[in-house]
Design brief:
With about 140 residues, this protein is an all-beta fold. The protein is built from no helices and eight strands. Helices cover about 0% and strands about 50% of the residues. The protein has an eight-stranded antiparallel beta barrel.
Amino acid sequence: MLQGLYKFRFTTERGTGCGVMFATSGGRLYGGDSGSSFVGSFSEANGVVSCEVTMSRHYHDAKYVPMFEVEIAVMNFTGAPRGEEIHFEGGSAALPGVHFATILAPSMMPMRHRPVQLALTASVTGSIPSTSACSTVSMPATAVS
């Protein structure tokens, strides 16, 4: 059961990123990174975790170049636990042709730095950048549901 503070790393054809996500016992998700916030819900059945998360850009500095050119996108993911981590795949109708591979890990657990293999669509060319280290943010959990 997802519950508590997690860190995430995602990889797409356009690059990699990371952030934090808080999962409540009531099936809600709240998180973000330096450019966007993420709010959504999740459910678990038969060892599969399904999520729907709305990404909303919050950083609008002219010098900031966002990875995606949209202000808001609804993203859908499905995943399964692998040890302490949960590995997801998914995408968004607002970002056609973009495939997300995401790893969610408890915030105090070291994130393994390994490439995530992606099935690239025919419309995307180029290579996937190597993963980079992301800072871990740690804060006390609060009762939110």
